[in-house]
Amino acid sequence: MQPKISNFETITLFQSFTKIELEKLISLGHLLSYEAQSNIILEAEQSWGLYLILEGSVGVYKTNKITRDYHEIIELKSGDFFGEFSLIDDHPRSATVKSKTKTQLFFISKKDFLAFLDLSIHVKVNFYFNCVKSLIHRLRELDDQYVFSQYQIWKSVLRGEK
To answer: What is the Rg, in whole angstroms, of the alpha carbon atoms belonging to the chain?
Structure first.
């Protein structure tokens, strides 16, 4: 069973795609199901493809390279996506993604996705434009989180808290 087009129409990366383009895209991928607390991708592993969250939620975790501590950096929910970096470069995964609830995903391999983009310059340009908009949004959120965390640290330091 394939997902509905309506699952894709609200996803930032695909908002400018026509119904025909979305149908073609859907035909290239497949559904994946995960139980709660399952690893979906692991930081530093070699794998390429885009995941769309159709149901459930996932946590995105980064390892502190100094302490080796594992920290959740964001929670993604139905309608969100991850793995888009792997469509652009050939670097290993930049984070671990783990299901927080029972989760249903739609996966499209990098090879199939790039072949899809090659079908139309219009689709390719719109996808990369939407990708840039999404990355800028995530960078702005990260910047806000950084400023807030620095404020909290300095507030503690000035009070003499440990």
So the answer is: 18
